[in-house]
Structure formats: structure tokens, C-alpha cells
Write the C-alpha cells for this entry.
Amino acid sequence: MDQANISLILPRSLGTTSNERGDLHRHGLTVIEHDPADRQRLSYLATTRAGQRIYLNRDVVDADVVVLLGSVRYDGLLGYAGTASSVYPGLADEEARQRFRAQAGSVNVPAAQEQLRAQVEEVGWLLGALFAVQVVRGPGNRVAALLAGSAPAVQAAAQTQLDLLWQRSCHRRAELVVAGISDGPWRQGFDQLGAAAAAASMLAEPNGMVALLSSVAQRPGPAIERCRQAMHPNVALRAAHESGAHDAVAACQIAHAVQRARIFLLSQLDRQLVADLFMTPLEDARQVQALIDRARSCLILNDAQLAPGTRATEQEGVQTA
């Protein structure tokens, strides 16, 4: 196929750099960044079984062949993101994206995740997106698997690979969990911070401590800003849920985490912002070491933003090797 006939359509949230876009252009690919608010660039696809009218990026709807490119990964709203979720809600209109974000209060609830994932798969089927190429990321943020084929088969196989890599367990919770985010600084934001906080806080003892090691320097979004105004984490959680903003899921994950454990954060964020989010800012590695030295027990969680499947098994009375 002539490369001039190939378009790469990116969700706005993907956040590719100008250098990456330049590389794609140099290879002769047309790169289109989706704007969910531009009604002129949307097209009606179909109506779902539940009666929901679906509007997607016009270039995707008009394409002769759609190949779903991306990564299969854990997701607070969907359980597993990947394949069709890059199209819906990734390339949907703003109204659909807000409907998804309105579910932020149900983050990490399996029944709600399954319902949303079923909607995603239905839209992928309505679009006729039959083929997919997906990456599974492993420890160290390296590519652990590259899968291609029919979209449902790729999604199922990638989820299995993901679970084999990340469904880990520890014997018991620790007083302190030290959790690192492995993405490069330009890839770290509140999405990664929220996922890491959620994973690490589940491994800490009740009212235990979590030290998050990151290079996050991202400006806060609307949901995070609403959380800053709250006087208590419960109020922050409600504010994040009601915001419907693009960062609502991350804000809810952070608000949940600070209710489970005392969160210490090493980052490039403003100290007052960190404190406003009910976390304690750390200045350097010496302060992290001081926390480790005084903790009765400690767990190290690498690639924390990728590892929400890690669980402590003591509450179920199970001991693992």
C-alpha cells in the first residue's frame, strides 16, 4: 500500500512529542490529532444496543480499513485498555468521553469495568475494526510482547500476557511501600502518579506509608485543581468524581490512596500542590532512606504505574512462594 494512503490518527491524550511526530511525517505518514470538540471532524457511526448514538473521528469512520495500534494495559475504568478503547472513547466526541469520565467514582470496581469494556467492544465491532497490533509492556517499561491479528484475539492474548507479567503477590502488607514510576520524565504525569498511588496503597498496612518516587512535573488538570480546594480526602474524592474532567480518574485514584495510607511524594511538583493533595513532599533520596530506616517492614514496588495487579494475600489467609 502507498504510504500516502495511510493516516495515523492519535487520541489527544496520547501526548506524542514533536520529535516523534516529525519521525512519522518523515516516513511519509499523515498524522492527525483527534479533537473531540470539533464537530466538523466527527461522523455518526451507529446506535448501540443500549440506544446510544456513537460519533467518532470522521477519518476513522470513512476509512476502508482500520488497524488498531497501541498497547494493552491495566486501566482503572475498563479493567484492561487496548484495541477498541483507542477508538472508543479515544476517538469519540467530547460527550462520550465525559460519560466515561463520569464513572471515575467507580474506578477499580470489576462489575463497572466489565460493563464499560463491553461498550468499547461493541463500538469496535460496529466500526468493523477487525485487525489490531498491540504491545504489552513488561518490567523496566520494555516491550514484553508484540501481538498482531484479529482484534478480539489480540486483546484476549495480550490480557493473558499482562496478567502473567504483573499479577504478583506478597505474603503480607508492609508498614512502608516504596514505589517507583519507570516512565521517562516526559512520559510521567498525573495518570501514572494515580495508577502508582493506587497500586502501592493496596500493599501498605492500614494507616501505613507509601513513598512514591517520580519525576512528575505536569501542570494539574481541572479535577486535580478541584481536589486542592477540598478540606478532606472524602471531599476531594467527591469533587474529582463530579468534575467530569479528563484527569478525573487520576484524581480519584490519588484521593482513594491518601485515605488508605500516608503518601510521601518525590517529584518535581510544587510543594504546596503536593500538600494540597494530602501528600507529604520529599526533597531527595535521603528523606526516602530515612523513611526506610525507621519502618518496621518495607516493600519495594518497581514499575508501580504498570503493576495494579500486585496484591497482598494475608487477608485471604493465603501464603505464596
